Structures are given as structure tokens and as C-alpha cells.
Amino acid sequence: MRTLFIKAGILILFFLNWGTMFSQCENVTVESLTNPGIYDVATLTEADGLRDGPAYFGATVYYPTNATPPYASIAIIPGFTASPDSVEAWGPFYASHGIVTIIVGTNSIFDFPEARAEALLDALETLREENTRNDSPLLGAIDEDKFAVSGHSMGGGGAQRAAVLDNSIKGVIALTPWLPTPELDHSSPVVIFSAQNDAVAPPELHANIHYDSTPNSTNKLLFEIENGNHSVANTPQGGNSSVGKIALSWFNLYVNQNDCYCSLLTEDLLDAPESASNVESSFECEILETQENSSQTLLYPNPTRGIVNISLQQDVRYQVYSVTGQLLRSGELKGSFKQIDLSSLSGSMFYVRINDQTFKIAKTR
Questions:
Q1: Which in 7, 48, 179, 196 has the greatest CB count within 10 A?
Q2: Rounded to an integer, what distance in angstroms lies between the CA atom of residue 73 and that of residue 159?
Q3: Pairing between strand 57-64 and 41-45?
Q4: Closest Cα to residue 353, out of 12, 28, 15, 13?
Q5: Catalytic residue status for 143
């Protein structure tokens, strides 16, 4: 029987501009996580003038040709004895969603995770130089404050170690990672994809330990693919395409700093996913365009077990929305004692609109 453990902590802030938030997030949907995305993709290699990094062997950069820069970027490396072809599908996938992607090989196919970590950091240096190379189509188009790393197997272990070596990395996407006795004291938000039937890097010996070894203060997610093998996350299509959708959402949430992807993850992609045999998470994210609530507490308690009190004397109209904007309940409240009952509604977060103000309310069990 499949078990599912989700321990997600959401940083709750109040906001006043309801219309602005939803207009910014209306295009962020599960359907928008298509493969390929909406942008055209081109490639660069060393034959085009790309830097030949000493810590890796061979590189291909995939980039969008009709998106709007500056671009966030990700460096990807394959696993033990594998070539870049084994993770090649990630290049056009990310680039078609507006993300510059560099996929590199290793100086030796037998390189262990630490050498792969160094190769990923060297790949990021190549992107920095591409950002200043006069003949590059990416001249001035790369946001050097938005770098992520990824890799498969030993490459996934290397990606996590790269975050330890360079604390400027904004995100890690580990694909069925292999890394014994991990030392993962870093603050880079990390998503770890593991596979239930992985005989090379069994979750109980690798991914699960990696998750537990990552500090609780670090935003982290473990997604184990049901019946998956060691190569199930080598492409975005893995786990009935859940791998690509979650990886892209995680990247956009923490590297591109687009908080619209928070509810997409928590309410859609991680809400009892059919492709998962185990999910564990501990991460915080904010809602765009939020503001601190006024000093007067209009709605209380928050969090609530179901009943929300309203401390206003005048008659009020109210609406209750889900985090994706679906109207769940509305009405008018009169009299000096006003309450809204959320106990029968499924979900743990709601927007409650009272007259011209909107508040984020958390519901606990």
C-alpha cells in the first residue's frame, strides 16, 4: 500500500491587492508546464566559441531564442560511466521554458560525485563568460544571480555537493542521486527525485538519507517515483511527466523567484500524486504582492481549526476562495457577532475577502 508523507510548511502573509496577485498568477497552471514549452530553442557548443572548461569534457548550451532576458540558468551533468546524451532531454525542455541550460560531460566517465560537483561549478563559470563574450547570442542575457545545478546518479550527488561548495547556487535538482555518507550542509532549495525500484541508488541508502542530511532550515522536497528504476528521472517525461513538471515548478519558485508556483506545487502537483510512492517536503514560500496586515486584527484566530471570527461592527459581505482562486463560499454577515465556518471545506489555506480587504487564512486539524 502506497504511503504518502507531505510535511510542507507555508509562510503565510496577508495581502491587500487581490486582483494584482491573481492577474500575475493566472498563467501559472499545470497545463503551462508543457514539454516542450512555448519558446524556440537553439544550441551553442565549443565549435561556436563556447569556453572549454578544464573541469569537464564537452558542453552544449541550450537557450531560448524568443524569450525575454535576462535568463536564469541551470547546469546538468550525467551519472557514472554515462554520457551527456543520457540527460540530453532536459536541455530543450528547460530552454523552451525560458531557462538557459548547459549540459556537460566528465573528464573521466569514472569521476565520483566530488569531481562532478567541480565540473558543474566550472560549467557555471562558462555561462558567466558567455554572458560577456562579444560574439555570443547570450551576451548580457544571463542573470548571474540565478544559477541552479542538476545531475543524475553520481551527477545528482555532485549537484548537492556543488551547493555545499558554492552557497550562491539558488537551486538543486537531484535526479535519483548517488552519494554515500553525504555532507549536505547548504541552504540551496533542493528537490530530490528517487525511484522506488532503484537497484543502483536505493532510496533507503541514498535519496532518503540525502533528504534527512539536508538541514531542516533548507527548503527541500523528496519525490519517490512509484515503480521507477534508476533512469526514471533522466528525462522530464519520467513518472508520467511529473518529474518535469515538479522540477520546472521548483526551479521557477526558488531560482526565478516566482511565488505563483508555490500553490501549484502544494495544491496540485504534490497533493496525493498518483505517480509517487513517497513524498516528503519541508519548504516555505510566499504569495506575490503580499503586505503585512494592519495592526487591528480583523479576522481571528489565524491559524484556525475551522471557525473564523470577524471583529467588525458593520454588516459585511464575504467570499472564501481556494489558493487557486476558486470561489468556495460567499454571503453577508450582520449583527455584532460574526463568524465564518471553514471546517467543512477541504484544504489547509484559504483567501477570505471581507468588503475590500483580502486575508490569507490557514486551517489546522
A1: 179
A2: 14
A3: antiparallel
A4: 15
A5: no
If one counts every other C-beta atom within 10 angstroms of the C-beta of residue 96, the result is 20
> Among the options 96, 97, 230, 249, which is catalytic?
230
* CA–CA distances in Å: residue 313 to residues 180, 319, 330, 333, 358: 62, 18, 19, 10, 18
Judge whether 304 and 363 are in contact, CB under 8 Å: yes
Contacts of 97 (CB under 8 A, 6+ apart): 37, 38, 39, 64, 248
**203-262, pLDDT tens digit by residue?**
999 999 999 999 999 999 999 999 999 999 999 999 999 999 999 999 999 999 888 898
pTM of the entire structure? 0.76
- Measuring CA to CA, how many Å separate 214 from each of 27, 80, 207, 264? 32, 23, 11, 24
Beta-bridge partner residues of 172: 149, 190
Q: Say what the pLDDT of residue 365 is.
A: 65
Distance CA 220, CA 208 (A): 12
Residue 275 to residue 24: CA distance in whole angstroms: 29
Read off the DSSP letter of residue 264.
I
Q: How many Cβ atoms sit within 10 Å of the Cβ of residue 179?
A: 28
CB 229 within 8 A of CB 199: yes
Residue of 96, 136, 150, 153 marked active site: 153
Q: Tell me if 299 sits within 8 A of 309, measured CB to CB.
A: yes
| CA dist list (Å): 21 to 16, 188, 350 | 9, 26, 14
Q: Inform me whether the pLDDT recorded for 292 exceeds 90.
A: no
Active-site annotation holder among 111, 198, 242, 281:
198
What b-and-e string marks burial along 316-354, b requiring 16 or more CB atoms within 10 Å of the CB? bebebbbbbeeebeeeebeeeebebebeeeebbbbbbbb
- Whether 122 is a known active-site residue: answer no
Q: Which of 211, 212, 221 has its CA nearest to residue 243? A: 221
Residue at grid coordinates 566559441: 49
